[in-house]
Amino acid sequence: MTDHSEIFTLTGSELSDGLASGQFSSEEVTKSYLSRIKEVDDKVHAFLSYDEEDMLDQAKSSDQRRASGKILGPLDGVPVCLKDVISAKGQPLTAASKILEKYRSPYDATVTIKLKKAGVVVGGRLNLDEFAMGSSTENSAYGPTCNPWDLGRVPGGSSGGSSAAVAAREAPLTLGSDTGGSIRQPASLCGVVGMKPTYGRVSRYGLAAFASSLDQIGPFSQTVEDTAQLLEIISGHDPLDSTSYPTPVPSFSNEIRQPFKPCKLGLPKEFFGTGMDDDVRKSIEQSIQWYRDKGYELVEISLPTTELSIPVYYVIATAEASSNLARYDGIRYTSRSEHAENAIDVYAKSRGEGFGEEVKRRCILGAYGLSSGYYDAYYLRAQKTRTLIRNDFDKAFEQVDAILTPTSPTPAFKFGEKSEDPISMYLSDIYTISTNLAGLPGISIPCGFTENGLPIGMQLIGQAFEEGKLLSIAHDYDRELQLGRSQPSL
Amino acid sequence: MDYEAVIGLEVHVQLNTKSKMFTRVSTGFGKSPNTLTNPVVLGLPGALPVMNRDAIEKSIKVGLLLSCKIAEVCKWDRKNYFYPDMPKNYQISQFDQPICEGGEVEIEMPGDSPSEIGSHRIVQLTRIHLEEDVGKLTHYESDSLVDYNRAGCPLLEIVSEPDLYSPEEVFAYLTSLRNSLVSAEISPCDMEKGQLRCDANISIRPVGTSTLGTKVELKNLNTISGVKNGVEYEIRRQTKALNEGETIIQETRRWNPDQKYTTPMRTKEMAHDYRYFPDPDLMPVKIDPEWVNRISKDLPEKPFDKQRRYMEEMNIPYTSTSALCGDRPLCEYFEKAASHCSAPSKVANWVVNDLLREVSHSEKDQQGVNLENCPVSPESLAELVNLIEDGVVSNNVAKEIFPEMYASRKSAKTLIAEKGLEMKSDGDEIETLCAQAISNDPDAADKFRGGKEGAINALKGSVMKATRGQANPKIVDETLRRLLLP
Amino acid sequence: MDIDYVANLARIELTPEERKKFQGQLGDVLVYFEKLQEVNVEGVTPTAHAFPRFNVWDEDEPTTGFTSDEALKNAPKSRNDQIVVPKVIEE
Ligand SMILES: [Mg+2]
Ligand SMILES: [Zn+2]
Predict the structure, then answer these.
(1) d(CA A417, CA A265)
(2) A286-303 burial by CB neighbour count: b if 16+ within 10 A, else e?
(3) Contact yes or no for B13/B198 (Cβ under 8 A)
(4) Most CB atoms within 10 A, among A90, A267, B32, B200?
(5) How far apart are CA B163 and CA B179, in angstroms?
(6) For an interface test with B, which of A210, A243, A331 has the most B Cβ atoms less than 10 Å from its Cβ?
């Protein structure tokens, strides 16, 4: 490539190739993204902060490594930006909350260390729904992110900054976190690839917790190929996370390059009922047909507990969140209310002033579900129902290799459309939530556009720790259709 | 009406692990503030706990020592409440599946005199669970300061049944528990350093009845005397209230050690709603019987069992055993010395009197004498006692040279030789001195001949004086008797 | 839902508007949650972890942590290497 002004449109693997062949340096790549951010982020608002000097320093180090033939891996010199809940030493971590406005992380998350060890240029901090609570990125204390395909619409959430940054070509690769669909749903709404790995595949150490038993960090990119590459880098057992799973990490990027035999995909009938947008339905049906034409066997399956997944999720996630977020109290590192006169005030006022509405709503709901006299009816009952949901998936996977569903019942919706009605907002995660409850890996791949040109995503759900197979099925489709490469005009 | 008190204790003991309960940063006491912290201790966004295997092993050890049932599986729960000393505003603890259940603590009440054994009784335990400690708050005039060095240290909570009935029993219970834990090297249990802390649940009921009265939880009992005085005060307060027709309300009260009274902290209605739930960040613990067996194999002897063995098998007097048995290194020292000596009860006496006196002297100038580097080795003490037993040296001389042995690390034999302190057992010389003593004090001689046994002592005394205590008292006695009553 | 009780448990001060709004919204959410009460969960083991394991632990070998400067860098108020809080009495 000679036209350096278009570097920012490239995929991670194209950047990797270009760096390897000397077409451009990491410094040029990084500068290209920085100028793109300056050009479009006023409109998109994917970033909460970025440290230009630090990024360029990292890029120069990468170029020096490359000059001395000591690159650390295929993504050495490629920028990867982080959702603002993942710690990077010396950088802010606001979780899009006012309460963490002045906080700077004194340590690196395990994924950040892994990225640094891979030579990646660890880039800016991406917007989200405050503490990852939401499905639209409207709940950011620093203002919403806009969908690059239609600036009047939401990018999805909670990792809306991570999906929008890739869609707007402000970053080739980003990381988000997914508790109930927070990677897959925004990926779907922004027309990019986003993946939630199996629970335990990627360390949560350094990820500001929302719901500990559900949270996973995962990648965003234009292609499945890039997602495989990035997932490979961030995966692996971490002794600092007791819930990270000690199973070997295969080379996902190699695995998807192997010839892949069409297999059996399940279509859960409960996911194809009412509530699905017509354009979404049409796109998904076309994708199903594509797989059928390729020789895949598509069978109807049943996940009868699907409708329970939302109440189960909201009971468990809010309970865990109410406890996880107790540490943001105005005492040690979060902002303290200026109106606090005694210790109780420090808590109640710092939290009352520092948290946004949705965070307060969920912390209160969560505290209620655990409170004296309600624990058995709410939290314990939800945990038991969670077992039933997992059992459903276990049964399904006796029949099929992966499950195919829409990622979101609707394409990107307008700002304000759902923000005053928590339940309708909660329902936008109906297709993604059960995957988290079962701990399974799920990926969203762009599979079409609405008549108005809004992206539509298809979700594939795989078996636990079988990300290689899941990525191969996704890659089969994505390699040919490449819908994530279509670029919104900004 | 006469009332009796019913008391249950919750004792918190810091385990002496090198690193904290859920992260590998050092534990320690007296370090400068907030230097034993890391992301996990401070509860920073994203920090996660990983449990310390050693803390679990030590808890199992305590459970075995106190005859608890060790759980096959235990898990971690979050206890949610806001307090500035608690970084995450939840404490990782164990709610419904503690590491140990049941258990017992043998206690001894004071005997009629210090030299007499008191009555023994078993106090039942409810459970023992493991949790993390909180930081330390220091209060000033207008604000408070928080140091998180102690936060996250492993803390064992030992909960007794309401099975103690007087402040004296409470004291006996704490003493016994502390002896067991110290001797098992679980914790130094220094209350001054907060390594052992105690809350008491106290109720009273009419003597002869069996239902429990309304309980009051008493907090801030931070010294042994605080525990005793606080409990005593609270029993008096409740008794007075009932006698005056008041009712006791279920509440938490605080002991004010300076003013010596208890004041209300919160009532039952204000009680915390802790919202316990299983900690999703931690996996449960499975304790297989093999592990328990391995730990039980090197379990130390229980202090009271040891005391009984010393008394019954080694004929050691009660007074010596009670001084020995709370201190495991001292017992080890004693047993080693006794194994080289034919008179264990004399060795015991030397250890609890002379040795301890020297140790506590030297502790004043050189910190923390430990018996491993004791200047008088167990073998050396045994040698000294043997020299007395064999009549080589008198008891008095031995007492005199012991401090020198301690100061100089010289053996008894060396010092005796250097100073010419061997006991005089030369028959002829002693016979001459005895004859002299009789002729110098004919009165005493006559009295003795007249049947007054005690009169011989005056004669012995003058012989000993003439030899500066170095005459063998046994030979002097024999010789005097032979000369006086041929 | 006794919103004042729960808001106090969660230590979150609500404005009168929030209080009113939440009361309604959370009431609706709880009605929606009623679905859970109909599920037959008799004999079902609760899922606390997606992929449970036992004895995930570390050895007792200490590492060094933060200096007090690092520990207090983000603190809203500190003195003598400690965090300053308004005076608290034991609760
Ligand atoms: Mg307690
Ligand atoms: Zn406790």
Answers:
(1) 34
(2) ebbebbeeeebeeeebeb
(3) no
(4) B200
(5) 19
(6) A331
Q: Considering A329, A363, A382, which residue would you say is the last residue of a domain?
A: A382
- Asked whether the predicted pLDDT for residue B202 surpasses 60, the reply is yes
Query: Is residue A182 one of the residues assigned to a domain?
Result: yes
The residue of chain C nearest to residue B148, with distances taken between CA atoms, is C82
B458 or B39, greater pLDDT: B39
Domain end among A345, A360, A382: A382
Residue B131 Cα to ligand 2 midpoint, Å, equals 7
What is the arithmetic mean of pLDDT over B248-256?
Answer: 93
pLDDT at B365: 52
Asked, for residue A421, whether it belongs to a domain, the answer is no
User: Which residues does A477 contact at the CB level (< 8 Å), separation at least 6?
Assistant: A224, A287, A290, A291, A445, A447, A458
| Band (B367; pLDDT cuts 50, 70, 90) | very low
Cα(A284)–Cα(A264) distance, rounded to whole angstroms? 17
Verify that A243 and A344 share a domain, yes or no: no
Task: Pick out chain A residues at pLDDT < 70.
Answer: 1-3
Neighbours of B442 (CB within 10 A): 9
> Whole-angstrom Cα distance, residue A34 to residue B226?
66
The reported pLDDT for the residue numbered A268 is 97
List, for residues B431-454, the tens digit of each pLDDT value: 888 888 898 998 988 998 888 888
Tokens of A415: 């700002």
Per the document, the length of chain C is 91
Task: Work out how many domains chain A is built from and give that number.
Answer: 2
Report residue B319 as tokens: 């007074």
What local confidence, expressed as pLDDT, does residue A344 receive?
85
* Both tokens assigned to A261: 């035999």
Kindly state the DSSP code that residue A179 receives in the 8-state scheme: S
Those chains having 3 or more beta-carbon pairs within 8 angstroms of chain A are B, C
Kindly list the catalytic residues of A.
Answer: 83, 158, 182
Distance CA B171, CA B226 (A): 10
Q: Are residues A124 and A186 in the same domain?
A: yes
Is A379 an interface residue toward B (CB < 8 Å)?
Answer: yes
Task: Tell me: do A251 and A361 sit in the same domain.
Answer: no
Does the structure show a pLDDT above 90 at C88? no
Was domain B427-484 assigned CATH 3.40.50.970? no
Task: Report which DSSP code applies to A388.
Answer: H
Residue A164 resides in a domain? yes
Does C81 contact B143 at a Cβ distance shorter than 8 Å? no
A401 part of a folded domain: no
Predicted confidence band of residue C78 (pLDDT cuts 50, 70, 90)? very high
**Domain check: are A61 and A194 in the same one?**
yes
